[in-house]
Amino acid sequence: MPDLIDDGKRWFSGRTQRGLYQLLNSTGYMEGWTIDNRYRGDDAFDVEMAERYRDHARRTCRAANLGA
């Protein structure tokens, strides 16, 4: 989430989490997402937004070696 990206860059700047650090530095990563979005109903998201957030979440899991 954009609010946590600066903290994430500090936490994952080492060599062991290089993929995650590069993802956090990418342009537009989790743009428009806020912690409040998780409480919205499904009808508050359009198809494009949902696909974009799903893709960002998948990329995050891959970069963190969590599988996807």
Describe the protein in words:
- By secondary structure, the protein is mainly α.
- It has one domain (2-63).
- It has helices at 5-11, 18-25, 47-63.
- The longest helix is centred in the last third of the chain and has 17 residues, at 47-63.
- It is elongated and about 40 Å long.
- The mean pLDDT is 71.
Summing up helix and strand content along with how strands pair, one would put the structural category as mainly alpha
Radius of gyration: 13 Å
Shape: elongated
Q: Could you tell me how far the N terminus lies from the C terminus, measured between alpha carbons in angstroms?
A: 18 Å
Q: Could you describe the largest sheet, including whether it forms a barrel?
A: none
Overall tally of structural domains: 1
Strands, total number = 0
- Helix content range: 40-55%
The ordered H/E elements are HHH
Treating each run of at least 4 consecutive H or I residues as one helix, how many helices?
Answer: 3
Strand proportion: under 5%
Instruction: Average the pLDDT over all residues and give the rounded result.
Output: 71
Poorly predicted residue ranges: none
Topology summary:
Blueprint: H1 5-11, H2 18-25, H3 47-63
Helix pairs in contact: 2-3
Question: Which short descriptors sum up this protein?
Answer:
mainly alpha, single chain, 68 residues
